[in-house]
Amino acid sequence: YTYPRLDVEVSKKLIHLLKSPFVVHPGTGRVCVPIDAKKVDRFDPLGVPTVTELLGEIDSWDSANRKEEDPEQRIQDYEKTSLKPYVEYFKSFVAGLLKDDTGVKRERDDGDGMEF
Hints:
This protein has 116 residues and is mostly helical. It has three helices and no strands. The chain starts with 7 loop residues before the first helix and ends in a 6-residue tail after the last helix.
């Protein structure tokens, strides 16, 4: 198959339209992850993590790093898993959007406004 495939059921049923980053697929347990469109040819949809795998990764990390954690330097659970690169990519994508939006907002704020 060539991705993306179009599926009639996916296109018309509301439950299928609620796919946001990091949502868990109810049937497979796979996590919906954001991907870099420039690297889509290297993306393996079956290689994304499942909830069960993520929980196992967190448990393994915690077992290997049992020392007392400083509450101020606590590592987020996603940082202990294979989900980390996807979260980092998403954060950089959102930061880029915010940066672009800041420029637009400044242009609006610097304008003369509406005069009647």
